[in-house]
Every structure is written in C-alpha cells, then in structure tokens.
Specification:
The chain is α/β, with parallel strands linked by helices. Helices cover 50% and strands 13% of the residues. The chain folds into 3 domains: 99 residues, no CATH class; 74 residues, Arc Repressor Mutant, subunit A (Orthogonal Bundle); 91 residues, no CATH class.
Length: 317
C-alpha cells in the first residue's frame, strides 16, 4: 500500500480493473451530510466507507504537534464552532477558556495575541451573518425520493423567501457544494427560495429553481453517490471548481483544464499543499494525470448547474 503512495516514474496500474459489486443489502437512504461528505472527496469516501480503510493525511499527521502559531486550517477549526456558539449567545471569555482547555492555542503572549486576533475576526463575521439572517427563520426537515434512495436531513436558517448557509472561511468549491445541496433540497421540497452562501471573502446567492429542475440535479448527485460506493470517482472539488469557473467564463476546455491544473499541482513557488497531495487521491488515481475526460465530465455535470444558478454579492453571474 505504501508503495502506491510513493511517486514513481513508471505508470502504476489502476487499483481496480472494474467497479465493485453493489452493496448487499442495497442502499435505501442517504442524508444531506453524507452526500456532502461524499462530494468533498469521493475517493476518501470510497476507501473509508466501502473498504473501511483510513489513511493519515498531512493535516492529521500534524494534529499532534503543539501549536506555536495558528495556521489557516486551525483558524477555521476554532473559528467555525466559535462563530456558531457566539451566534447563539456564548460569551468570549468562556470561549477562550474552552480553547485553552482543549490545547488549541499556543502558550504565552503568542497565544493571547492569536486569540484576540481570531476573536476579533470571528466577531466581525458574526455581525455580517446576523445581518443576513432571514426573518422568522426555522429548521426544515427534508425527506425526498432521489434516484431510488430517500434523501433526509435538517436545514437551518430557512425563512419564507430565502435561506442562509455560512462558513467562517474563504469560499471554496466544497463550500459552494454544501450550500448548493441544501438549496436543491429546499427547492425540490416545494420551497422556491433563494439561498445565500456567505463566507469571509464574499457571498454567492443561488436563485430559486423549479421543483423539477432541483429534483433533476439531486437525482444526478445521488446517482453519483451510489456509484461512489462501487469505485472512487475522479472528482476533485477544488480543481473541478476552477475548471468549471474557467469554462463558464471563456468556453475554452484547454484554458479551463489549465486552470484546474494550477489547483491540482503544487506550484514550485508556493509551499502550500496542492489537491493532488491528498493520499486518497494518490492511492485511487496513481496515474500522473487524472485530470482527464472523466474528470472534465464530472466537473461539468456537478458544477455547471451550480454556477448557472449562482450570482455573487454584486449580482453578477
């Protein structure tokens, strides 16, 4: 297994020559959260859920280290639940105690400074969230037939004309998918609402859809979910989002694929990890170039309807 994770000059054969057989007994249900987890990383979903195989990611390998500074992921992991609790009335003092008790902050002056910086950012963000909350919002229960399964879950912050989904982060492809899933579920349930996806760097609003249009999109995603139990699908959300955005802008597949590669492959001038570094992707797709025709087809199938329905904060498509 380790050998497959090492880069080689020779082409490594695919892990599976054919899809695994369907589950027995077959799937009957899927939750919104499960569908979201699948779309965030279909390869990881396949290995963890179907094969019960868990790999150590670079992020998990560093999780045991003592924090000296807060990196981007750590700021999100603290900031997202912090924002949630502040929105329901928690106070900053108890939240700092919680973070220190969990050893999430560096010691000493660096830790105090890191906390104050993070707290100020989160408090400013929660003010923006409050300003966008729909009036008389409620929690909506979802129970829909989709592609032979029943899709269920709860969606929070749903008003009479709009819904709000937020992330304390710069919006990425996986965040857009999470908001899009909930938008589709609401509209397929007969609630023709707009859904605003709010992040630290801006917002995207999905326009209302007809029941039939929302249902078709959900059916396609749930069908992919079922395929994902039999084989790892070549869908990489960050690279796929870059591909779909560029394709929508220029209509040029070659330029769109080049945009995807910039996300997929680590830039020699940028030490940050690239999407290709994910060990589940490397295990599932040992070929040096998994950004192939299948990738392009999935990127278009999943992201094109999302982008067609989305407008940014200034109303631009």
């Amino acid at each position: 297994m380790q050998a497959r994770l090492q880069r080689r000059d020779a082409v490594t054969p695919p892990l599976f020559s054919a899809p695994l057989p369907p589950l027995d007994p077959p799937l009957t249900t899927v939750t919104l959260d499960e569908l979201e987890r699948f779309l965030k990383n279909p390869a990881r979903f396949f290995f963890q859920q179907r094969l019960q195989l868990r790999l150590i990611t670079p992020t998990e390998a560093l999780a045991e280290r003592e924090p000296f500074i807060l990196d981007g992921l750590e700021r999100y992991n603290i900031g997202q639940p912090l924002a949630t609790r502040l929105l329901i009335g928690s106070d900053a003092g108890s939240e700092e105690e919680r973070a220190r008790a969990a050893c999430l902050l560096p010691d000493g002056p660096i830790g105090r400074s890191s906390w104050q910086t993070l707290l100020g950012s989160v408090q400013a963000f929660t003010l923006t969230v409050r300003s966008q909350l729909p009036e008389k919002s409620e929690i909506i229960e979802i129970d829909l037939p989709c592609a032979g399964l029943y899709l269920s879950g709860e969606i929070e912050r749903v008003g009479t004309e709009s819904a709000l989904f937020w992330r304390y982060a710069s919006l990425k492809g996986k965040d857009c998918l999470a908001g899009w899933l909930r938008h589709l579920a609401l509209n397929a349930s007969g609630r023709p609402l707009a859904t605003t996806l709010l992040g630290k760097d801006g917002a995207m609003t999905f326009t209302p859809l007809s029941i039939d249009a929302a249902q078709r999109c959900l059916d396609e995603l749930v069908a992919l979910y079922q395929q994902g139990w039999q084989q790892p699908l070549p869908f990489f959300p960050q690279s796929a989002y870059a591909y779909a955005l560029a394709l929508k802008k220029d209509g040029d597949e070659e330029k769109a694929l080049a945009a995807a590669r910039k996300v997929w492959v680590k830039d020699e001038h940028n030490p940050a990890s690239a999407e290709e570094d994910d060990p589940y992707y490397r295990l599932a797709f040992p070929d040096d170039d998994p950004l192939n025709a299948n990738f392009m087809a999935l990127a278009g199938e999943i992201f094109t309807p999302l982008l067609n329905a989305g407008t940014d904060a200034e109303g631009k498509e």
